[in-house]
Amino acid sequence: MLGVVRIFVLLALLPLISFGQKECTLTLSGRVYDAATKSGLPLATIYVIGERKGAEADENGSFKINSFCPGSYKVVCAFVSYKADTLQIELSNNSIHDFFLTPIASEMNEVVVTADREKEHVIATQLTGQINETDLARIRGSTLGETLKQIPGVYSLQTGPTISKPVIHGLYSNRVLILNNGVRLEGQQWGNEHAPEIDPFIATRLSVIKGAASIRYGSDAIGGVILVDPPSLRRNPGINGEMNLVGATNGRMGAISGILNGAFDKRLKGLSWRAQGTFRRGGNARTSNYFLENTGFSETNFSSTIGYKKERFGGEIYFSQFDTKLGIFTGTHAETLADVIAAIQRPTPITPSYFSYSIDRPYQTVKHDMVKISAYYTAPRGGRLDFVGARQQNERSEYDYVPLSGALNPELFLRIISHTADLIWTQRNVGHFSGNVGGSFITQGNVREFQFLIPNFRNYGGGVFVIEKWTKDKLTIEAGARFDYRWLRVYTLDSNTVKEITPTYHFSNPVGTVGASYRVNDRFTITGNFGTAWKAPTVNELFSYGVHQSAASFEIGNKDLVPEQSYNLTASLLYDNSRVHLQLEGYSNVINHYTFLKPALQYIHTIRGAFPAFTYTQVNATYRGADANLSYNLTPKLSLFSKTALLFAYNETLHDYLVLVPPQRFENGFKFELGKWGNVSECYFSASHMYVARQNRVPPNSDYAPPPPGYYLINATIGCNVHVAKQTVSFNLGATNLLNAAYRDYLNRFRYFCDDLGRNITLRMRILF
After folding, report:
1. What is the per-residue pLDDT across 59-111, written as a single tens digit (0 to 9) for each?
2. What is the pTM of this model?
3. Which of 554, 600, 541, 551 is nearest to 748 (CA)?
4. Residue-wise over 97-134: b if at least 16 C-beta within 10 A, else e?
5. Which phi and psi (to 5°) does residue 311 adopt?
6. In the sheet where 224-229 sits, what is the strand order?
7. Which domains, and CATH codes, for the chain?
8. What's the CA gap between 425 and 437, in Å, rounded?
9. Which of 139, 381, 603, 618 has the fewest beta carbons under 10 Å from its own?
């Protein structure tokens, strides 16, 4: 297999290298000025959108960026406390362009303030990864979990072909917080396999904070935080938008998503709006050799925003709805204990192999509504107060293979309603100091109907934090502290007396962080951070007892669980110049009372069928690993890249390994810029080879099936932009698992029963108007 891969990459590279001998030697230079005083602004940042190019102004405000090809580029100049400036520049010769920046105090630009404010709220010395708008457009149509796998150290926990959730450094579920448009997503409290209720089409940027981030975002952020950022509202009067069309061969999936942005003028100046919608539909997925019966899905999403922004104050009202229906592979259902054992041992499922868009039992439906109200106020002498309040309602229904609650009723229905509020004060810079202080609050109520999995409950929580940063010259030092309190009351029945009992839990904990970043020179930066975090036991971990149909399991909770406590150390090295980008990250996460769903190695037979059993248990665990991200511009048109994610986890209590830990992953590839011809620009071709190793670090006889063998996948993409009149149309043709390899992924819960997806070819079209 390695020989085939080498031949494929060599054959792909040879013609492209010969085709790319044309050198791109143009330069862009200039100076950055204060528009009022006309003095130079040292250390201003100049970067090219969609390109890995940029520079930092010297002590006089002068800059120079090399290695441009002829063409059109969007260049942004930014400086702290100044309004950013954006220029569309046509380069055919060496060019000089100066930037004149206006202080924010005299002319507020909310887009820049929002971006800077988000950076202030993130711990600057923590490990971060990001997928920008350009890269997102090239992978549209994937789930959030699959999309984030582009970042080293981020994995995907799957349940079949349609359910996927992100994993950061081996941690998942309630240990990874997701902020959707600045609001903590509440809808994952009932199990490990529930996918985030987020439409990735709404995002123009996805950011991942790796490691303990509880200081800023609250308890539970032991693994990290995912920020889903939609575009800022339009400021200039007028209307613009985009349309995305996606079609894929595997499952014959189709998706259409559109967004419109508008801003008013004259008497309504400052008032803006946005409307967005997505529809996705797919049929039975296919492995390399057979279809998976009843694995289709349909999804309809909608969001809208209206906002008002002035120089010192403003606000937004945001509404979104996520609505999906997901088929569950029928091969996971077994009537008897012998059937489920045979299904796990069988190399190929015996379910019929055919394509269909129809979704029959078993399936699940999920509906998530969110209303958000936000406002800000900037004080005359500096400093800013931000408020975000939100209401979320999440409803999940699971329909079994055989109706037990009536033909039209689900076997399991859960509804959780959450109210959250955040208040943050960002202080004005005083000398070398900056920082913010704030608080967050949450209330939750859950109700269930029909079959039992978790009980009804009420949950209240709150926390306060402070983060302070000191910056001088090349050194940044920051520290923070937070205190959180959680109150949980559960409404359940005593199995002996059949009377309602209401056990109540109180959890509280302080956490802290300290970190430093040192910029050795313009190319080399060293960063380190130590932080603590914690997570209170969730209702499903404490009280689960029943069939979880979508996960094909019988789950058993543990009422004796105590809060997890994490001690997380991270360090990174960043080197970046015009030819090389290298980021090395290392981490060590010690978690006391780590809670996980352990295979019980027994099967439970119920009226709903036979299922493998899993129990929640606690141990002391250590997660250590390293991530590497390297890209090298071999020529101005040809770049090579390599991504590596290494992870080692250990059960300190039993002096053994842990189950369900991501295996080692390696990806190598190249990208070739094909240039520009007439109205066709930004053409490129890329190919990559990904190797996922077998997970050998597992306790013997600890799972229902041994870890599957490692596997190789070949992926390739070609794309370009076509300019028609004033419109830009982007085309992208991508292929995953190009060689149609048969494999099973260790992080897919359905690996007990079937292979993973086979070849998938996706065509994407993006229209800007």
Report:
1. 678 888 887 877 778 888 888 767 888 887 877 777 878 888 887 643 333 33
2. 0.83
3. 551
4. eebebbebeeebbbbbbbbbbeebbbbbbbbbbebeee
5. -65, -40
6. 127-131, 205-210, 224-229, 176-180, 183-184
7. 26-101 (2.60.40.1120), 117-226 (2.170.130.10), 227-768 (2.40.170.20)
8. 5
9. 381
